[in-house]
Amino acid sequence: MTFEDQIRNKIDNLNKPKGSLGRLEELAQQICLIQQTLEPRLSHPCHLLLGGDHGIEREGVSVSPREVTWQQMLNFTRGGGGVNMFCRQHGFDLSIVDVGVDYDFKREEFRVKSEKFLSVASLGESEQARAATAILDRKIARGTKNFLYEPAMSEAQYEQALSVGAGLVDACHAKGCNIISIGEMGIGNTSPSSIWMHLFCNIPLEECIGAGSGLNNEGIRHKYEVLSRAVANFSLFTLHPSLDEVIRYFGGFEMVAAIGAMLRAAEHRMIVLVDGFIMSACALAATQLRPEAKDCMIFAHCGDESGHKRMLDFMGARPLLNLGLRLGEGTGALCAYPIVDSAVRMINEMNNFQNANITKYF
After folding, report:
1. What amino acid positions are annotated as catalytic residues?
2. Do 165 and 264 touch, CB atoms closer than 8 A?
3. Interstrand relation of 271-274 and 297-299 (parallel, antiparallel or unpaired)
4. Are 305 and 211 in contact (CB under 8 A)?
5. Which residues contact 189 (CB under 8 A, 6 or more apart)?
6. Nearest alpha-carbon partner for 319 in 292, 345, 339, 343
7. Which of these, 109, 165, 115, lies nearest to 132 by C-alpha position?
8. Taking the model in full, what pTM does it have?
């Protein structure tokens, strides 16, 4: 009997009709295979919130201004974001990481920023110091280059971003973590996600572009025109691009770090909870590089962004939730965690027919 047969046998002998717990049974089997045990467990769940800015944002492809990235990063340090709430609810260890935000989070610079929404100029000294230390500094540069005209990052920056993500996962693994989720904060990051989807899935670009953080029809049309020109310029840049060249030409630092994190987590045989459109695009890129990494991925949520379902279908991924979320930050992944927990509890805590003295009727 193969190990997969042993898992199936254990699940089928729990005191329930065969297959009656549906996706929970599938999840339990996947987690057993990831951990190579008939008694899986979830330990020290961690969430990585990666921040980075994008040069393409300068082309007006997002309704949100660039400064929202750093403002929200500071908001996260004060516990005020959606990601904070869900991490508290489900007991996740949250790491807020600056991989490439166009802002200097050093204390002395807080005083020169304008008194806008969430401006830290209004914070007291103790709050400033707490904000400065709460964000992990892994900054590669203050945002990527504008991929309409040139590669978003250099080869060295690309390798550094992958390494940052891998190192963050190593640190989580050292704490005993075996399940990780990843979120992002970066105005404009639906643009590289759409292009990756277009190039990797061979889906027309127009069908890969959505409203992002709230573009109207005219804004979506403008975004399509900008991204179309960028793809055309890329085809002139290299005739036969490698997977790595596609990823680094368009990707954000936070997105490439997420790819590095996913790949390292798979090496550690950790469960990877994949969030919405942007993190699904990172999972797509990661599985293009290493197809076996998908075995460790649980796709948590299908959002409303145009094309997300088609991207998931391309990967053969079935998301657990469809809640209409489009916040990012990894919130969809965090919301799905209790379902994963239920699957693990099912295989470990439910009695079987023999011990319960119930006639097995199939």
Report:
1. 329
2. yes
3. parallel
4. yes
5. 52, 54, 252, 254, 255, 278
6. 339
7. 109
8. 0.91
Cα–Cα distance, 132 to 74 (Å, whole number): 9
C-beta of residue 156 within 8 angstroms of C-beta of residue 20: no
Distance between CA atoms of residues 177 and 297, nearest Å? 15
User: pLDDT digit of tens for each residue in the chain (362 aa)?
Assistant: 899 999 999 999 999 899 999 999 999 999 999 999 999 999 999 999 999 999 999 999 998 899 999 999 999 998 889 999 999 999 999 999 999 999 998 753 444 443 443 444 455 555 544 544 589 999 999 999 999 999 999 999 999 999 999 999 999 999 999 999 999 999 999 999 999 999 999 999 999 997 666 678 888 999 999 999 999 999 887 778 999 999 999 999 999 999 999 999 999 999 999 999 999 999 999 999 999 999 999 999 998 776 899 999 999 999 999 998 888 899 999 999 999 999 999 999 998 877 766 777 66
Q: What is d(CA 189, CA 64) in angstroms, rounded to the nearest whole number?
A: 11
DSSP annotation string for 246-310: HHHHH--HHHHHHHHHHHHHHHTT-EEEE-SHHHHHHHHHHHHH-GGGGGGEEE-B--SSTTHHH
Contact 231, 205 (CB under 8 A): yes
Q: For residue 339, what are the CA distances in angstroms to 182, 275, 342, 349?
A: 17, 14, 5, 15
State both tokens at 77: 């340090």
Q: How far is CA 138 from each of CA 2, 52, 164, 209, 272, rounded to the nearest angstrom?
A: 44, 10, 7, 30, 21
Contact (Cβ atoms closer than 8 angstroms) between residue 162 and residue 100: no
50, 97 Cβ separation under 8 angstroms = yes
Strands, sheet with 179-185, edge to edge from the N-terminal-most edge strand: 135-137, 93-100, 46-52, 179-185, 271-274, 297-299
